[in-house]
Amino acid sequence: PPRTAGVAEDRLAAFLADETARFERENPRSKEALQRGAQSYLGGVPMHWMKDWPSPFPLVAAEAQGARLTDLDGHRLDDFCLGDTGSMFGHSPAPVARAIRRQARQGLTYMLPTEATFEAGQLLNRTFGDFRWQVALTATDANRFALRVARAVTGRRKVLVFNGCYHGTVDDTMVMLENGRTRARPGLVGMVADLASKAVAVEFNDVAGVEAALATGEIAAILTEPVMTNSCMVLPEAGFHDALRTLSRRYGAVLILDETHTLSSGLGGYGRVHSLSPDILVVGKCVAGGTPTAVWGLTPDLGARFAAYNATRPAGHSGMGTTLSANPMQFACLCATLSEVMTPEAYAHMERGAKRLAKGLAAAIARVGAPWHVVRVGARVEFICAPGPLRNGTEAAAAHQPRLEGAVHLGLLNRGSLIAPFHNMMLVSPMTRTRQIDRLIAAFDAILTDLFA
Ligand code: PMP
User: Fold this and answer.
1) Where are the beta strands (DSSP E) in 137-191?
2) Is the torsion defined by CA of 428, 431, 433, 434 positive or negative?
3) E strand or H helix that includes residue 223
4) 170 C-alpha to center of ligand 1: Å?
5) Residue 56, SS3 per DSSP
6) pLDDT value, residue 329
7) What is the rounded distance in angstroms from the CA atom of residue 257 to the CA atom of residue 203?
8) Would you give the DSSP letter of residue 130?
9) Going by C-beta distance under 8 Å and a sequence separation of 6 or more, which residues neighbour residue 418?
């Protein structure tokens, strides 16, 4: 009989039917709230990604605390999605909640710096290294602005990204490799520009491909995650990051490291843990404890080059910044997160828990003999429904099994564990308990028993 990643199609169909029926049966209040209130939203949800959860309809959340989320039907879910990394340090960390309460009485946005602004700057340098920072609301914006600086200082046009990458909804990065050529991704809505004139896609771990692209002299920047976390989870091969650094210097391209997800690696992110030296560092999502903030920083050297460029720039819009960016609430939350939440002790707990989780999932996979594997980057764990390791975005795309993965996600949700949609990602926060991890492992094991029966 036909199989998907080792699972017989008829088993998968039966499992999906059972789990879908169970979800419908057990979530009447979520369903009713959506039926009552969804009409005022385009497509029924306030942000269309919410339709992409692998359940017949999205859960409606009631509240969340620590690593637990409660839905309208009163299920207390172990949350390993954590807002897809926005809440990697747990929901409403106490120091952040206190900072919000304090700032809430003192004004929410003024387009002026505060004393906390300067405290946050010191903390950013202490945490991430010596950079000259700017503050944005989203990692998408931070990447967009970083790319502008890179183009400005190099006078070049193109960004080099890796096939299968994701850096937010930055148009220029929305390209893919097809038969060795760069083209726009087919699903883009309302796209007019020819993205291949602004970007080049190369396979991750392909040093020769990177060098060939750089040798055209058109590349302003290499924009990469330290680990490809948005394409299953593809680890850099030994020497890959060193090669990116050496080649980007040789060919005069700016090296931008997007640590938005790999902040899971340890204090200061993957680059700090592994001694990388980017020209621009980008961190978003959880950097201010779950409130909308991203930071991007230039090395002092690049900062000086940008200042020189700025001195010659005609007056007028720069194309960077947004009105609410760098507001006082962001600095209150940044200070609280960097000083009291993102601690060595927190990371030690995350690392320990994630190790336990990865080991438990791998054991379940081995027990049923599934041709799957598990990858971990610090607190971030992913199961992949194919043998590993994967080397690049093309291999990751081939490994992706949306229907099977959706079935596992739904099965986990029905058993009390929420994991991230779009990938098979699980995060262990400083507030995640061992028993939550063990429940997730047991649920995963039970699901595999069922699928591989
Ligand atoms: N960079 C990376 C590596 C990401 O994974 C994401 C979002 N998944 C972003 C940037 C964009 O973040 P945001 O959607 O908050 O702008």
Assistant:
1) 158-162, 175-178, 181-184
2) positive
3) strand 219-224
4) 10
5) coil
6) 98
7) 16
8) S
9) 69, 77, 78, 79, 80, 81, 412
Written as one letter, the residue type at 311 is: A
State in Å: Cα 52 to ligand 1 middle: 16
Burial of 84 (0-12, 13-18, 19+ CB in 10 A): middle
Domains of the chain: 3-79+344-451 (3.90.1150.10), 94-341 (3.40.640.10)
Atom of ligand 1 nearest to the CA of 142: 16
- Measured CA to CA, the distance from residue 423 to residue 426 in angstroms comes to 9
Atom of ligand 1 at shortest distance to CA of 230?
5
Rounded to the nearest angstrom, the distance between the alpha carbon of 216 and the centre of ligand 1 is 29
Q: Which residue has the tokens 């939440």?
A: 341
Question: 9-26 and 434-451 are packed helices; what angle lies between their axes, rounded to 10 degrees?
Answer: 130
Q: Which mutation among 48, 232, 260 tests ligand 1's pocket best, with the greatest number of atoms within 8 A of CB?
A: 260
CB under 6 Å to ligand 1: residues? 138-140, 143, 166-168, 225, 230, 258, 260-261, 284-285
For 148, the token pair is 């502008």
- Mark the ranges of the chain whose per-residue pLDDT is less than 70: none
Reading the block at residue 345, the tokens are 């002790």
Round to whole Å and give the CA distance between 57 and 78.
Answer: 19
Please tell me the distance from the alpha carbon of residue 274 to that of residue 187, in angstroms, as a whole number. 35
> DSSP 3-state helix, strand, coil percentages of the chain (rounded to 5)?
45, 15, 35
Give dist(CA 124, CA 139) in Å, integer: 16
Residue with the smallest CA separation from ligand 1 atom 8 is 168
Is the CB of residue 280 less than 8 Å from the CB of residue 248?
A: no
In degrees and rounded to multiples of 5, residue 114 shows phi and psi of -125, 175
List, in order, residues 6 or more apart from 161 with CB less than 8 Å away: 167, 173, 175, 199, 200, 201, 202, 222, 223, 224
Residue 105, C-beta contacts closer than 8 angstroms, at least 6 positions apart: none
Residue 422: the pLDDT is: 85
Output the CA torsion sign for 84, 89, 91, 95.
negative
Q: What is the 3-state secondary structure (H, E, C) of 23-53?
A: HHHHCHHHHHHHHHHHHHCHHHCCCHHHHHC
Q: Would you say 273 and 427 are in contact if contact means Cβ atoms under 8 Å apart?
A: no
The complex's ipTM? Answer: 0.99
- Point out which residues pair with 294 in neighbouring strands: 136
Model confidence pLDDT, tens digit, residues 164-194: 999 999 999 999 999 999 999 999 999 988 9
